[in-house]
Amino acid sequence: MDLVAPVCLSINLFMLSRLNRLTRYLTRVFFREVLSVPYNLRYSPVVFLSEYGGLGLDYSYALAAAEELGSINCGAIPMAIGVQTDMATPALAR
Q1: What is the pLDDT of residues 15-37, one digit of tens each?
Q2: How far apart are CA 60 and CA 66, in angstroms?
Q3: Cα distance between residue 37 and residue 13, in whole Å
Q4: Model confidence pLDDT, tens digit, residues 53-74
Q5: Does the model's pTM come out above 0.70?
Q6: Residue 55 buriedness (CB in 10 A; 0-12 / 13-18 / 19+)
Q7: Other beta carbons within 10 Å of 53
Q8: Cβ contact 33:79 at 8 Å
Q9: How far apart, in whole angstroms, are the C-alpha atoms of residue 59 and residue 63?
Q10: What average pLDDT is seen over the chain?
Q11: pLDDT band at residue 94, thresholds of 50, 70 and 90?
């Protein structure tokens, strides 16, 4: 008896009914609660020039902040903060 199709269908229904809603909720919470923290702590503008709202410090300060973010027990959160603060924001400033 082929059980692959019913198992795939039940997983798909579970994903569509519950996980997608949960993912949308967690995404909103993540952006509001996690990605706003570096900006509130003034971490994100460490290496930006002061005329762009940054602190104008050199990259050793950004390295120290990134090293501290590395102590988080989850790899996704420091990576998301690093992408937001060091890749997306400088590109938007140009």
Answers
A1: 777 777 777 787 788 878 777 77
A2: 10
A3: 35
A4: 677 788 888 788 788 888 888 7
A5: no
A6: middle
A7: 12
A8: no
A9: 6
A10: 75
A11: low
Which residues, at least 6 apart from 56, have a Cβ–Cβ distance to it below 8 Å? 47, 48, 49, 50
Cβ-contact 78, 70 below 8 angstroms: yes
69-88 burial, b at 16+ Cβ within 10 Å, e below that, comes to beeeeeeeebeebbebbbee
Return left, alpha or beta for 68; rule: phi > 0 is left, psi -120 to 50 is alpha, else beta.
alpha
Sequence letter at residue 27: T
* Residue carrying the six token digits 């993912």: 23
| Residue whose pair of structure tokens reads 């900006």 in the numeric block | 39
Structure tokens at 55: 């602190």
Contact by Cβ (8 Å): 71, 24 = no
